[in-house]
# Entry
Amino acid sequence: VMHMALDPRSGTLLAAAWDWWFGGRVYRSTEAGRTWNEPVAGPRFAEDSGLKLEKVWEVAPGSASEPGVIYATVEPAALFKSTDMGDSWELVGGLREGPWMDQWFPAAGGLCAHSILQHPQDAKKLWVSVSSGGMYATEDGGATWEPRNHGVRANFTPDQPPVYPDYGQCVHRAGMH
# Structure
């Protein structure tokens, strides 16, 4: 289990898990963890994408105004969204479509998307952190993204300077202030 979250909308526990047979999936428990559902499948990249999902790293419930919405970050770095409590998943594509993609490189744990943050009053505003990619924000539900790394040092990159690039920071965890 890579991460767990409590869905305050329903009291459901969500678990981002990986196993060698089934791969990455999101499990649900409506009984405080006494029993868990057996998901049919987890998030998956399209077959023609050339990408293979390695792990589900984090899971987060959507806002109170989005019943059934769950977000999941994965490796290789991407964000997925479910609108039916994890029975099916769709790639939130804009995050992987920016000019930063050529600059992302795997850190020691792989090329992972980690934290998922959602604005408490605006469900369309999300932040996702990527190791080693930086922090990214969307204000339109994921259609477009922009880096949010101004002033964050990244002196481990092969191309020195700049030490404060627009993207490439190794963000492992972020939280809402």
